[in-house]
Design brief:
The structure holds two protein chains of two kinds. Chain A contains eleven helices and no strands. By secondary structure, chain A is an all-alpha fold. Chain A has one domain. In chain A, helix 1 crosses helix 9, helix 1 packs parallel to helix 10 and helix 4 runs antiparallel to helix 5. The longest helix of chain A has 33 residues. The chains are: A mainly alpha, B mainly alpha. At the A-B interface, helix 1, helix 2, helix 3, helix 4 and helix 5 of A face helix 1, helix 3, helix 4 and helix 5 of B.
Chain lengths: 313, 117
């Protein structure tokens, strides 16, 4: 049993790495077509092997270590952020995959909070002004949205009475939580976009203000690892959007392919949002979470607690 | 538990191998003073690279700390409310959430949530 669990975790982690590679291709292609151009189409057949070429290029690229950098933590931070992004994938529930035990969402909360440290370290140990400013912004944004995210997560788990992701997916066999918790679902998606520092909330690397934000000093392998971690987080957030609010799809389709299709669609939504909206304003971002989401999430949570208690008898 | 530990170990190995791979096969090249200085637009960086930042960010972290502790206290509620026969999970969580909400409105009223004054 243990071996099977371990094997399924490792397989979903390796598949996640592959998915990350091709998700970057999807993003470049998609953004290309949004802007009425082709995107990468020269490598191989229609640009399909492009991610592999990118990987080779990034790993063989020269590694610049600026003199002021604290070298060891500077190199460890990207590896740590990829590590944390991949740890989450053991929670992935597919048709074939046996999930981890009853406290999987607790593991998610812990690991996703730790992700802040790698961003903070990447900025701080770079010893550069742009990197520091970018990482400070990124940390403030992440921790703010973490509050509302954990409360929304709790509102979903409340309906099931368990902290296990596989349990909440099983409970949605007949009806989706999205029907009960519709506004929570919308808020969860926006929080996910903000938590992963994606456009329109990409203040961690606002190109026009800070050169590239917290990863300004990175190139080569460091940049590659940070990039993979970011996209791994995006894909896992898409998985969570589907698992928490549309969990029943794991039973739909041949071998549960419904889940993969829905997750790809949510991943596509991240790109779509990026192509459609201009960058938000930082103070508005903070108002959105503290003055709008947090009071409404707390109120809805109170309502849910009472209704669950009454309906439970 | 053991499964997760072994999984973490495997991931650690994957990450270290990726990092070492990048460190070993990267293209060597010359390095000079300009190239190795932190990225700033064409001039030498001043000494204070780790510049002081706005107090807002620190205050935000303090507020976050309070809310995060409260979330930790709320987490057991998820399994208690369905699995208990008494009204205590309901009553205590309602009192707790009300205090949390009033606390948030108090912060708002006092202006600690305002990003720009």
């Amino acid at each position: 049993m243990m071996l099977v669990e371990l094997l399924s975790g490792v397989i979903s982690c390796v598949c996640a790495l592959l998915a990350v590679a091709f998700f970057t291709l999807l993003e470049r292609k998609g953004l290309g077509y949004f802007q009425l151009r082709k995107g990468p189409n020269k490598v191989g057949l229609m640009g399909l092997p492009q991610p592999l070429a990118d990987a080779v290029k990034l790993f063989t690229e020269e590694l610049v270590k600026p003199t002021l950098v604290n070298v060891f933590p500077f190199l460890v931070c990207p590896a740590m952020s990829l590590f944390l992004a991949l740890v989450l994938w053991i929670l992935y529930n597919n048709y074939f995959v046996c999930s981890m035990g009853g406290l999987s969402m607790l593991l998610f909360l812990c690991v996703s909070s730790l992700g802040v440290y790698s961003v903070m370290g990447a900025g701080w140990f770079s010893n550069s002004k742009y990197a520091l400013l970018g990482s400070v912004r990124a940390v403030a944004q992440s921790i703010s949205y973490e509050v509302s995210m954990s409360l929304i997560l709790m509102s979903c788990l409340l309906l099931v009475g368990s902290m296990s992701l596989s349990m909440i997916m099983k409970y949605q066999f007949f009806v989706w939580v999205a029907f009960v918790n519709f506004f929570m679902m919308l808020m969860w998606f926006v929080s996910c976009v903000a938590e992963t520092h994606r456009a329109p909330f990409d203040f961690a690397e606002g190109e026009s203000e800070l050169v590239s934000g917290f990863n300004t000093e990175y190139g080569g392998v460091g940049f590659a690892l940070l990039f993979m971690a970011e996209y791994g987080n995006i894909l896992f957030m898409s998985v969570l959007v589907i698992s928490l609010f549309f969990g029943g799809v794991v039973f739909v389709g041949v071998f549960g392919m419904g889940l993969c299709v829905m997750v790809s669609f949510v991943g596509w939504l991240f790109i779509w949002v990026r192509a459609s909206y201009p960058r938000y304003r930082y103070d508005l971002l903070m108002y959105l979470i503290w003055k709008s989401y947090l009071p409404s999430v707390l109120s809805i949570l109170m309502f849910l607690v009472v209704s669950v208690y009454i309906l439970n008898g | 538990m053991v499964t997760i530990l072994i999984y973490l170990l495997i991931l650690l190995i994957i990450n270290v191998v990726l990092l070492l791979l990048g460190l070993i096969i990267n293209k060597r090249s010359y390095s000079d003073r300009e190239k190795n200085s932190p990225f700033e637009c064409g001039f030498d960086p001043s000494i204070h690279t780790r510049a002081p930042f706005s107090m807002r960010f620190f205050l935000l972290a303090v507020i976050f700390l309070i809310f995060d502790v409260e979330i930790i206290l709320l987490l057991p509620l998820t399994s208690n409310i369905l699995n208990s026969n008494t009204h205590w999970p309901l009553t205590s969580s309602m009192i707790f959430l009300t205090i949390l909400l009033i606390g948030l409105f108090h912060e708002w009223n006092q202006g600690s949530l305002d990003w720009m004054k």
